[in-house]
Amino acid sequence: MKKTVLALAAASSGLFGAPCWAGEWSPFLGGGLTAGGDKVNSSAITRVNGDTENLHAGGLIDLRAGLDFRMVGTDISLQGVVAYHTDRSDADNGSVDFSRLPLEFLVQWHANEKWAFAGGIRKTNGVRYNGVDAGVGFGSDQKFKSSVGWIVEGEYAITPSVGLKVRYVNEDYTSKTYGTKFDGSHFGVLGVYYFR
Predict the structure, then answer these.
(1) What are 64's strand-pairing partners?
(2) pLDDT single digits (tens) 134-186
(3) How many Cα atoms are found within 13 Å in the side-chain-facing hemisphere of 182?
């Protein structure tokens, strides 16, 4: 029994000590703008001066934090991300917000020192439409469940620590209250800073 345990320990240390499992961990922060998806407010949000606007299931502000794991001896990175994604309208007498908390996992291929391309999946949690004060007149508060979405993106390294991402996300949301489905698919442009 003792010999078996020692043999397994030696084999596992050889496996996990292999170059493909060694790598560099780099936390990162990022943010940017997105556009797309269905309109989520039931009527146009109208301001006192007559201006109108709408919130969209794919908009607008994306703030994120993540961890990049670059495997030594390969052109591959693995990225895990948690984000805050919101489209919001604020005024002195109220606000309307469509917010969500996506979790993402991506596999990134580094074509060269400047360009990388990635694909992955995204599951969005805490999806909510919320109106406060005068904002309640433009749609009822409700929560949504999301599909498992997919992501494709390209990243350009401006410097070794600063990247610019262009991405497309395909996902949808279903209202838990009314059963209405909204397309949340969107394009985005994000800047990221890696703490290398």
Answers:
(1) 30, 83
(2) 667 777 799 999 999 999 999 999 999 999 999 999 999 999 999 999 999 99
(3) 28
- SS3 for the chain is CHHHHHHHHHHHHHHHCCHHHCEEEEEEEEEEEEECCCECCCCCEECCCCCEECCECCCEEEEEEEEEEEECCCCEEEEEEEEEEEEEEEECCEEEEEEEEEEEEEEEEECCCCEEEEEEEEEEEEEEEEEEEHHHHHCCCEEEEECEEEEEEEEEECCCCEEEEEEEEECEEEECCCCCEEECCEEEEEEEEECC
**Residue 116 token pair:** 């990388």
Predicted structure pTM score:
0.85
Cα separation, 154 vs 50, whole angstroms: 40
pLDDT at 21: 52
Length of the chain: 196
Are 125 and 104 spatial neighbours (Cβ–Cβ below 8 Å)?
no
Please say if the pLDDT value at position 1 is more than 60: no
The most confident of 19-28, 40-49, 91-100, by mean pLDDT: 91-100
b/e map 94-111, b = 16+ CB within 10 Å = bbbbbbbebebebebebe
Structure tokens at 109: 């291929």
